[in-house]
Amino acid sequence: MKKIIIYLLFFAPFLSTAQSTDKKEIRKEKAAREDARIKKMQKDAEQGALIFNKQSAFSISLRSDGYGFGYEHGKYKKINKTNLWWFTFGERKHPKEEKLMQQASGFQVGNPYIYGKENNFYFLNIGFGKQLLLGSKSAKNGIAVSANYGGGVTLGMLKPYYLDVITQAGTRDNIKYEDDPATFLDPNYILGSASFGKGFNEIKYVPGVFAKGALRFDYGRFNDIVSALEVSVSGEYYTQKMPIMLLNKEKNFFVTGSISLIFGSRR
Predict the structure, then answer these.
(1) What is the pLDDT of residue 89?
(2) By residue range, what is the domain housing residue 7?
């Protein structure tokens, strides 16, 4: 027992020193790896690479036939490739829509209305695709250019358009085209459009598919922030023709151009 105690007392300082040295070496290795990782990220950032694991962004779109609001989520795969999924909700309008107002004695009567409009056409697109980095940011222009493409399913929603009218019987009522076609199309009986919420309980749902291609210009100063302008073209096909305006040809295939403002974050 005495020999063991003497042995421990003699060698303990050396063991402690060896363990301390090993811990210092481990800490140095960890620090070196972290320093190398940071330097690589700084180098990639200087070269314009968008370094991230995920991205989340919202969008506001001005479309050639309406407007839209969206959300997208991206998953980093390679330094120049990202998998995307997104959804967009918006309204499609007919090119011949024109807001009118009824006036009496120089004063507006009722709400503005669209003559001959049969349905409000809303849509919900759910898509999957990819984002390919074409050009990195540089110190000169600070813009990264990406190509986005993909497709998915769309759900068209037709909400009957209601007018506030004076009926031929002399009473005031809210009607859609099917209720009384003659009164609906006679400006002499129209006071204006009905309230916005009228008809939501009568929405007709029409499924379809869509495809989209886009160029995105990311002008954000910092790579962890998404600040971009996107120009896109999409095609949507529905399983039936979508009536928007009366006395106009109905169709079930739509080609749309849009400009979108995109903002969000990467992490």
Answers:
(1) 98
(2) 1-46
